[in-house]
Write a structure and sequence with these properties.
Structural class: alpha+beta
CATH class of one domain: Mainly Beta
Pfam families: Pro_Al_protease (PF02983), Trypsin (PF00089)
Strand content: 35-45%
Family: Belongs to the peptidase S1 family.
CATH topology of one domain: Thrombin, subunit H
Strand order of the largest sheet: 18-19-20-25-22-21
Protein name: Serine protease
Shape: globular
CATH superfamily of one domain: Trypsin-like serine proteases
Number of strands: 26
Distance between the termini: 25 Å
Oligomer: single chain
Keywords: Disulfide bond, Hydrolase, Protease, Serine protease, Signal, Zymogen
CATH architecture of one domain: Beta Barrel
Enzyme class: hydrolase
């Protein structure tokens, strides 16, 4: 919950989804995260609409998997309980967290930083990568110090970057990406991927220098990070995600990720990795422009995974954007919420 903190402007062979070019052998939170019941997504979305500014976000309880909704008023607490959610009273309301995000945007928009809402601690969680200098860290800390504990800062290894790589998988403009999900509109077939990928090229092939399989029909980066490619090779690919084990995960619906939940990422470089959602409403300050309203996770990723699928069971959650790298099994994969991309292009998963 609390996914829209400010107005946003405008804003790959399919390894997240199967291209249909022939089958391919298909408080601290535990690393595994919680698994939400299907109804939790709907409850989260409903309460977000109903409670508005009286809630500072929601998350999944790491032990029980129950949806916990943070509230700042008695009225909101009554509404959330009546809807079936667990309620937690917090001191900082949505406006205060919004103000903290705005202060960071104004005073500490530093390449190599990201920030987003962690409703578990009722704070804005800031990460600064290795490229952030001591002088820039001092500036960041000075901004945070004026916000009365609403912001916490952590150093992370590596450098935040968009994860495009040369060679392999889906090719466009001399670069390789992954793709997220096959989608449809009026019987036409498309796939969605990262906007910083579709910015590179209008034409996409399954092999380097190979025949074009799809043509770009939309792209949005920076601000957002999504794009859409229409299949032009006459294929009718299945609506599933490659698990790189000889099997595939069918995708039946799309939802917004909830802090504390477990998910998986499928990408052409690191294949399938797992992680936990740790923050929503995330701003990432890449070197070539910021992206807003993203989701931060602990999944591992690497160059070439850009555009890949973030999902939980049969639910599509996001389009892989970037990360600061991966240490062991602990990563920092960022995704663009897929529902926003689906709405922008008027398409649906299938």
């Amino acid at each position: 919950m609390r996914r829209t903190l400010r107005t946003r402007v405008g804003a790959c062979l399919l390894v997240g989804a199967t291209l249909g070019l022939g089958a391919t052998p298909a408080e601290a939170v535990p690393a595994a995260g919680a698994t939400p019941a299907p109804a939790a997504y709907a409850l989260d979305a409903t309460l977000e609409r109903q409670l508005g500014a009286d809630s500072a976000g929601s998350y999944l309880d790491a032990r029980t998997g129950a949806l916990v909704v943070t509230v700042t008023t008695d009225r909101a607490a009554e509404q959330a309980r009546a809807a079936g959610a667990t309620v937690r009273r917090v001191t900082r309301d949505a406006a205060e967290l919004d103000a903290a995000m705005d202060a960071l945007e104004t005073g500490a928009k530093i390449t190599g930083t990201s920030w987003g809402i962690d409703p578990r601690t009722n704070q804005v969680a800031v990460e600064a990568d290795e490229s952030v200098s001591a002088k820039e860290m001092a500036r960041l800390k000075a901004v945070a110090a004026r916000l009365d504990g609403a912001v916490r800062i952590a150093r992370v290894p590596g450098v935040f970057h968009r994860e495009v790589a040369g060679g392999g998988a889906i090719y466009g403009g001399g670069s390789r990406c992954s793709a997220a999900f096959n989608v449809t509109k009026n019987s036409a077939r498309y796939f969605v991927t990262a906007g910083h990928c579709t910015n590179i090229s209008a034409n996409w092939s399954a092999t380097s220098g190979g025949a074009v399989i799809g043509v770009r029909e939309g792209t949005s980066f920076p601000t957002n990070d999504y794009g859409i490619v229409r299949y032009t090779d006459g294929s009718a690919p299945a609506g599933n995600v490659d698990l790189y084990s000889g099997s595939f995960q069918d995708i039946a619906s799309a939802a917004d990720a909830v802090v504390g939940q477990a998910l998986r990422k499928s990408g052409s470089t690191t294949k399938v990795t797992s992680g936990t959602v740790t923050a929503v409403n995330v701003t990432v300050n890449y070197g070539d422009g910021p992206v807003y309203n993203m989701v931060r996770t602990t999944a591992c990723s690497a160059g070439g995974d850009s555009g890949g699928a973030h999902f939980a069971g049969s639910v599509a959650l996001g389009i892989h954007s970037g990360s600061s790298g991966c240490t062991g099994t602990s990563g920092s994969a960022i995704h663009q919420p897929v529902r926003e991309a689906l709405a922008a292009y008027g398409v649906t998963v299938y």
